[in-house]
């Protein structure tokens, strides 16, 4: 064997020569050959070619289900948020409008709290029974002054004025019903009476000591419902509360007020 000759191995298995069994079919499918014969040319680069296949040869693709989430909850949530925002904005606007109106009224009318003082007190009856119960009759003269130039005051029913000693109420009465005009001072005579108030033995002994010193402390409390008149307008009902801390020299018809301190508060 010469050097230029080459040896090619034969592919045999189980006595079969595979070189003879090579397929004689062309490597290109007949469809392509037919398309070339029919003059079909491949599309230029960059373009697509539409190929139609028979339906029996088409493999169906898997249909991916679409999940449609309900939008009713989202809509309800958005509507609730919108209603809440509208309500908050309305409340803020209402509060702002009320504040502006109150500011304008204050600048126009310049309201001031009325002043009250006790001019005199007359004790027509004060007695302590053996069972330590009391019987009292007082006559109190109260001065009410309205310092406002453009505001009137209506004093209404269901008012009361009470006198107490060391926290024990002795008697009470009602304030009169009337209208007080601008820059007006009115004197009010209020009759008070009470029976059945019981004192302890310690309070009785303390009261006797105060009488001996001619300094008997008494507390007067008044609660009066009123309405304010602003021009032609009337306000809603307002409660005026007045407290007097006073000292008298005796508990009889000749009693005189030694000292008196008042405090006025207004409750809407």
Question: Could you walk me through the main structural features you see in this protein, from its secondary elements to its overall organization?
Answer:
With 268 residues, this protein is of the alpha+beta class. The protein is built from 3 helices and 13 strands. It has helices spanning 30-37, 72-109, 201-213, and strands at residues 12-13, 16-17, 115-128, 133-146, 151-155, 160-165, 168-173, 178-180, 184-198, 216-230, 233-234, 238-248, 257-267. The strands form 3 sheets. Strands 5, 6, 7, 8, 10, 11, 12 and 13 form an 8-stranded antiparallel beta sheet that branches. The chain starts with 11 loop residues before the first strand and ends with a strand.
Secondary structure elements and pairings:
Blueprint: E1 12-13, E2 16-17, H1 30-37, H2 72-109, E3 115-128, E4 133-146, E5 151-155, E6 160-165, E7 168-173, E8 178-180, E9 184-198, H3 201-213, E10 216-230, E11 233-234, E12 238-248, E13 257-267
Antiparallel strand pairs: 1-2, 3-4, 4-9, 5-8, 5-10, 6-7, 6-10, 10-11, 10-12, 12-13
Keywords, separated by commas or semicolons:
3 helices, 268 residues, alpha+beta, 13 strands, 3-stranded antiparallel β-sheet, 8-stranded antiparallel β-sheet
Brief synopsis:
It contains 3 helices and 13 strands, in the order E-E-H-H-E-E-E-E-E-E-E-H-E-E-E-E. The protein is an alpha+beta fold and 268 residues long. The chain is elongated, with a radius of gyration of 54 Å.
């Amino acid at each position: 064997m010469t050097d230029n000759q080459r040896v090619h191995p034969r592919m045999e298995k189980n006595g079969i020569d595979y070189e003879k069994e090579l397929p004689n079919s062309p490597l290109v499918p007949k469809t392509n050959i037919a398309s070339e014969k029919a003059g079909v040319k491949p599309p230029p680069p960059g373009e697509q070619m539409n190929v139609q296949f028979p339906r029996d040869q088409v493999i169906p693709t898997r249909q991916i289900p679409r999940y449609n989430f309900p939008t009713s909850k989202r809509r309800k949530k958005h509507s609730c948020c919108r209603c809440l925002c509208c309500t908050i904005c309305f409340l803020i606007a209402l509060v702002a409008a009320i504040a502006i109106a109150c500011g304008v009224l204050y600048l126009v009318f310049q309201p001031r709290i009325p002043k009250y003082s006790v001019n005199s007190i007359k004790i027509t009856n004060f007695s302590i029974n053996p069972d330590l119960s009391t019987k009292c009759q007082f006559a109190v003269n109260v001065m009410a002054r309205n310092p406002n130039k453009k505001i009137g005051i209506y004093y209404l029913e269901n008012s009361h004025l009470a006198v107490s000693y060391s926290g024990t109420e002795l008697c009470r009465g009602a304030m009169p019903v009337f209208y007080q005009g601008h820059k007006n001072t009115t004197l009010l005579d209020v009759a008070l009476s009470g029976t059945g108030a019981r004192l302890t033995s310690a309070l009785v002994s303390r009261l006797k000591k105060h009488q001996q010193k001619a300094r008997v402390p008494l507390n007067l409390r008044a609660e009066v419902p009123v309405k304010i008149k602003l021009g032609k307008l009337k306000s809603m009902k307002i409660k005026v509360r007045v407290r007097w801390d006073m000292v008298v020299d005796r508990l009889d018809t000749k009693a005189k007020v030694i000292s008196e301190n008042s405090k006025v508060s207004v409750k809407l």
